[in-house]
Specification:
It is a single chain. This protein is an alpha/beta fold. It has 2 domains: 1-37; 40-366, Purple Acid Phosphatase, chain A, domain 2, CATH 3.60.21. The chain is built from 7 helices and 14 strands. It has helices at residues 4-37, 64-78, 101-113, 140-151, 203-206, 214-237, 280-293, and strands spanning 39-40, 52-57, 84-87, 118-120, 162-163, 166-175, 178-190, 193-197, 242-246, 297-301, 308-310, 324-328, 343-348, 356-361. The strands form 3 sheets. A 7-stranded mixed beta sheet has the order 6-7-8-9-10-12-11. β13 (343-348) and β14 form a beta hairpin. α3 packs parallel to α4 (140-151) and α6 (214-237) runs parallel beside α7 (280-293). The longest helix is centred in the N-terminal third of the chain and has 34 residues, at 4-37. The model is unreliable at 1-38 and 40-45 (pLDDT under 50).
């Protein structure tokens, strides 16, 4: 029989137990919410047509001063609500800078300092040019294998929040010990826009420079073409409103820019400057896909360190491909310190006709020629 005294004791113990459970739940929920928020699954936006913004950067840092500038750039990106960011390759200068393991560890720190998911595609300064004596005379394939381990060991992006990505898992590329998956080639869809990275390099796409490697190029080029074609197929299946492709190398599109890119006949896409051509086959395939897709396509690259947005791609009759836009991100300007340590914000609105719009972000503390007011 429960006496009045025992009943009061029972109520007190029950109340304490309930309060303890509430406190425990209060302590646990933040960790659960944090865990959920740290993982972003591609394509699960409740409103697929909702606009969002992304950040693009690359060819940085090339010097100690630019390392300081990059930390400011990252702070600037973190101050804005970005869906994700992409670095289009070249983590250091092309010469007189070691390709040692510390380089990639430092870069990983930069990417994981970004609050938004951080995607990355390798650059020639990161691996193809590592065989230069001034860079330490490394084996370039071994350095690419190492990058694959450091940056691409899972099917998620880098960054404090992670983005699920599709990975090119077929063993189509080459590593030190033979055929390996091209795990650096990634694809993801956010809202109604499909994105993909491609391992396309400067230095003639590994066909020139200190130790050209035609076999490596041949395998990777075929893999890139296959990944690009599959990306267009996937975008069509998903009814994507647009596609963005991101790589490092500037392939050259026409005869207008001999100082910053290979020269090529814009109709035939044959290179005309006498250098080995590591891009023509890819460009021919890309042109066919761009014409068939009809919707907006953004092609992002770095390499020549000259910020620009234009429409240089022509068809076989010399007519401009109206749906194709080339974007080259800001990049190194060592002589002027942090002068070009800037980034590009892209507004993405699947409901708009052109889908992408662009706003250069000049980091106030990285201004050199004209200091911030």
């Amino acid at each position: 029989m429960i006496t009045k005294l025992n009943y009061l004791k029972f109520r007190r113990v029950s109340t304490i137990h309930s309060l303890w459970k509430i406190c425990l739940l209060g302590l646990t929920l933040p960790f659960l919410v944090s865990a959920i928020n740290s993982l972003v699954i591609a394509g699960e936006n409740e409103n697929a047509n909702a606009p969002y913004e992304i950040g693009l950067w690359g060819d940085l840092p090339y010097s100690d001063a630019q390392e300081v500038g990059v930390t400011r750039l990252i702070d600037d990106m973190n101050s804005q609500k970005l869906a994700f960011t992409v670095h289009d390759g070249d983590l250091k200068a092309g010469s007189n800078s070691l390709c040692d393991n510390a380089l990639y560890t430092k870069a990983l720190g930069y990417f994981n300092a970004l609050e938004a998911p951080a995607a990355f595609t390798p650059g020639d300064n990161d691996w193809t040019d590592c065989d230069r004596p001034s860079n330490g005379g490394f084996n370039s394939l071994e350095r690419l294998d190492y990058e694959r381990d450091v940056f691409f060991s899972t099917n998620f992006s880098l960054g404090q929040r992670r983005l699920a990505q599709e990975v090119q898992t077929e063993p189509l590329c080459l590593g030190v010990n033979g055929s390996v998956p091209c795990v650096e080639n990634r694809r993801w869809t956010v809202g109604r826009v499909t994105y993909a990275t491609l391992n396309i390099q400067g230095s003639c796409n590994n066909l020139c420079d200190t130790a050209p490697d035609p076999e490596e190029y041949k395998a990777r080029n075929a893999a890139n073409i296959a990944w690009m074609k599959e990306t267009f197929r996937v975008a069509k299946e998903r009814n994507s409103a647009a596609i963005m492709l991101i790589s490092q190398g500037s392939p050259g599109w026409d005869l207008s820019d001999p100082t910053r890119a290979p020269l090529r006949n814009p109709r035939t896409l044959v290179q005309t400057d006498g250098q080995p051509d590591g891009f023509k086959d890819f460009l021919l395939a890309l042109r066919d896909e761009a014409i068939a897709f009809r919707k907006p396509i953004a092609y992002v690259h770095g390499d020549s360190h000259y910020f620009r947005i234009d429409k240089p791609f022509l068809d076989t009759q010399g007519r401009r491909l109206e749906n194709f836009t080339r974007i080259e991100t800001f990049g190194n300007n060592q002589a002027n310190g942090t002068n070009d340590v800037q980034w590009l914000k892209v507004s993405v609105d699947p409901r708009s006709r052109e889908v992408f719009s662009y706003q250069p972000q000049i980091v106030p503390s990285n201004r050199v020629a004209v200091p911030a007011p």
